[in-house]
Amino acid sequence: MGVSAFTFKDHLIDSVRYFSAQRVPSAIIVCEAFLSGALDVLIALAPLYLVSIYVDVKWLGLVLAIQQGADLVGSLCAPLIKIKPTHFFCWDYIISGAALLMVFIVPWIPAKVLAFTMGFVIIGISGNYFSKMLFSLYDHNRLGSVDTIIRALYACFGIVFLLVPNLYSNITVLGIIFNALTIVFGVILAVRIYVIRG
User: Fold this and answer.
1) For the chain, what is the radius of gyration of the CA atoms?
2) Which string of DSSP letters, residue by residue, matches 105-168?
3) Could you list the pLDDT tens digit for every one of the 198 residues in the chain?
């Protein structure tokens, strides 16, 4: 049992070291996990947001249908876009972050719906590019351990963010903060890819 425990620990350390060594794609994965957790809590608080802008909660189903439809459109459009996976994500964060930020700062409801739709079309495209990035930039023999790390990151950020409403539940402020952070992540990633790496 002692040998098995040591082997597991050794494998875990090796997997984390390998993941950390892939700097840009692994940084993107951490950002994706963080932003996924943030998005989960915003969707969970959507009924409160509808109430705050004087929209009947009965429209929540339509909001979620628009989200799913936009995500589907994005996934269908993804094969038509030709850009390196790592390069795509900086634009993903900037555009989707700006679109979803508009949802919380623009008062006109049709404009909110349009921005919401645009944001989730980009998010739908990013799902396809996420898979491309994994298969093109990681050793295929290590994808199992990379997938384990990804699932752990998503679960941890998901749990942390879903606890946020217990401390603070103003969805408008949270939406502005989380989407502003998304834009910041995109700008930092763009600088790293286009400027620092030349």
Assistant:
1) 19
2) H---HHHHHHHHHHHHHHHHHHHHHHHHHHHHHS-GGGHHHHHHHHHHHHHHHHHHHHHGGGT-
3) 444 555 778 888 999 999 999 988 999 999 999 999 999 999 999 999 999 999 999 999 999 999 999 999 999 999 999 899 889 999 999 999 999 999 999 999 999 999 999 999 999 999 999 999 999 999 999 999 999 999 999 999 999 999 999 999 899 999 999 999 999 999 999 998 888 765
Query: pTM for the full model?
Result: 0.89
Residues contacting residue 70 through CB under 8 Å, at least 6 positions apart: 116, 117, 118, 119, 120, 121, 123, 124
Q: Which residue has the tokens 């989380």?
A: 178
Distance CA 53, CA 71 (A): 24
Q: CATH number of the domain at 51, please.
A: 1.20.1250.20
For residue 135, which of 10, 16, 22, 3 has the smallest C-alpha distance? 22
Domain count of the chain? 1
Task: Kindly tell me the burial class for residue 10, based on how many C-beta atoms sit within 10 Å of its own C-beta (0-12, 13-18, 19 or more).
Answer: exposed
Domain that holds residue 83: 2-196
Instruction: Find where tokens 């930092």 sit.
Output: 188
* Residue given tokens 């876009």 in the structure block: 81
82 backbone dihedrals φ, ψ, rounded to 5°: -115, 100
